[in-house]
Amino acid sequence: MAYRYAIYWAPPRDHPLWRAGCAWLGRDPETGETIDPHPEPIARREEHARLIADAARYGWHATLKAPFRLAEGETEAGLDAALAQFAAERTPFPSPPLIVASLAGFLAVVPGEPSAALSALADDAVRAFDRFRAPPTAEELAKRVRNGLTPRQQRLLDTWGYPYVMEEWRFHMTLTVRLPDDRVAPLRAALAERFAPALAAPPAFREVALYVEPEAGAPFRLLRRYPFKAG
To answer: Mean pLDDT across the stretch 54-76?
Structure first.
């Protein structure tokens, strides 16, 4: 059994967005392959390593259900079966346009326009799999509070174990850590150019994925993909 599990969306393996994201983060979480990111001329290798340190550990993805430990009495096999059923009941839907943008100072691939279908997918995943989630520890809760929460985010944390869900959720595929103000615009422009071919035709949403953290602090791995009905 893994230390933590997460329900993510990941681009299909054969799509340029999967290859571009894994290359930028220097790792394919599905195969475990290390990839030379070739960060120049966007950043020197030392700066690049700092830029992607957190995102690289979690692997290329967009969060649907944030990492959680299994609740007492739940098993990986049970989670696997529930995910297969969840996916089988869903229909594929098109992606909105995707762009590189700044979210509170860190850069990410985000939708260029709202998508009700995408929000519904995330909301449904949060609700459907909450029974598998062990309550956060006091340390985990304190860390969230230290980062600063609105009253609504605090209520969401209390209910769902994570503050950025429901209307507070934003689809994003993280590219960097939080940046100094003077680095946001130039890095955004450079990454938009680098990712332009991969974002030219965003992939449809046809599956979800289960990622695992084998042990505390270890890189997350993509354990399994679950196709939607007729996907």
So the answer is: 97
Residue 89, SS3 per DSSP: coil
Please state the rounded mean pLDDT for residues 188-206: 97
The alpha-helical segments, DSSP class H, found in the chain are 16-25, 45-58, 76-88, 116-128, 138-146, 151-160, 181-199
Instruction: State the residue for tokens 């103000």.
Output: 181
CATH T-level assignment (fold) for domain 4-113+173-227: Cyclic Phosphodiesterase; Chain: A, (3.90.1140)
Domain-wise residue ranges, the chain: 4-113+173-227
Question: Interior CA angle at 81 toward 78 and 84, to 5°?
Answer: 150
DSSP 70: B
The pTM of this model reads 0.95
Instruction: Concatenate the DSSP letters of all residues of 177-206 into one string.
Output: EE--HHHHHHHHHHHHHHHHHHHSSPPPB-
